[in-house]
């Protein structure tokens, strides 16, 4: 039996024009995964190739679309036949093992939580994604789902992040760092200090506090923080990357001699772009749910959305949610009695 992933075909800034080509390209390379494209059937079928009937792709009609700026509560109450909601419903009904959407993040979070519920022992989902580092990659959470977190929730995030890294085969017994404004034991808020006590008592491979520059140094395999701090750090990183790209472009085109230098540097520049290409890391997971729900960047292209589908398939194949549920019992009780 092949793995089935439900795909919100209408989500994101570009909708079916990006999602459908990405889905077709993915199934051509991965014969063990079947995709269900959920959305306006006529719009989706108009973009399918002539040989679509021979591919592992189905189309499931949904009559509504959640707008990118729509209030999550409004979408949850009023759009029960949206492409996002129906895709998640397919997971709840057991017709798909994972879901991908590039749509409204708040609506996706609220709908997934309402329809699928949380894993026992987890209070809130956390957004996690891989980031490139000097040593490879690190997984950071929460990146914006929870602007305020308790120490216990930060401890849950630490467990979920560590299990994710192990389940995906990235590293055994991954190291976990708690983001803080210094490495000394006295630094940070009461909540952060209490969270450090809980994580240290959990049995996880706890490195201790890490600072902002440790994220891209790759000091730990997992970095834990609340969603407010995580989202600010992520958006700051994206803005810095865009600025560096723009400055390089301006400096290399300033004089004829520099343009020649740019030609000579093309191999290195292409390698740099490939290593830091955000599309290669697209696909943030909403951890804490009983099935993988992957949020793609809304403005990504075909390459980026293909990566988000691959992330959903990888997490479903590795049974990440089930493994998180199993490992919570190992780590959390001893941690919460510390």
UniProtKB/TrEMBL annotation:
Name of a matching Pfam family: FA_synthesis
Matching Gene3D superfamilies: Isopropylmalate Dehydrogenase
Subcellular location: Cytoplasm
Keyword Zinc: no
Molecular function (Gene Ontology), one example: phosphate:acyl-[acyl carrier protein] acyltransferase activity
Predominant location category: cytoplasm
Alphabetical GO biological process terms: fatty acid biosynthetic process; phospholipid biosynthetic process
InterPro entries the record matches: FA_synthesis (IPR003664), Phospholipid_synth_PlsX-like (IPR012281)
GO cellular component: cytoplasm
Keyword Amino-acid biosynthesis: no
Transmembrane segments: none
Enzyme Commission number(s) of this protein: 2.3.1.274
Highest taxon of source: Bacteria
Record field: catalytic activity: a fatty acyl-[ACP] + phosphate = an acyl phosphate + holo-[ACP]
Entry keywords, A to Z: Acyltransferase, Cytoplasm, Lipid biosynthesis, Lipid metabolism, Phospholipid biosynthesis, Phospholipid metabolism, Transferase
Pathway involvement of the protein, from the record: Lipid metabolism; phospholipid metabolism
Subunit structure of this chain's protein: Homodimer. Probably interacts with PlsY.
Entry-linked PANTHER family: FATTY ACID/PHOSPHOLIPID SYNTHESIS PROTEIN PLSX (PTHR30100), PHOSPHATE ACYLTRANSFERASE (PTHR30100:SF1)
Family: Belongs to the PlsX family.
Protein function: Catalyzes the reversible formation of acyl-phosphate (acyl-PO(4)) from acyl-[acyl-carrier-protein] (acyl-ACP). This enzyme utilizes acyl-ACP as fatty acyl donor, but not acyl-CoA.
HAMAP family found in the cross-reference section: PlsX
Protein name per the record: Phosphate acyltransferase
Species of the source: Immundisolibacter cernigliae
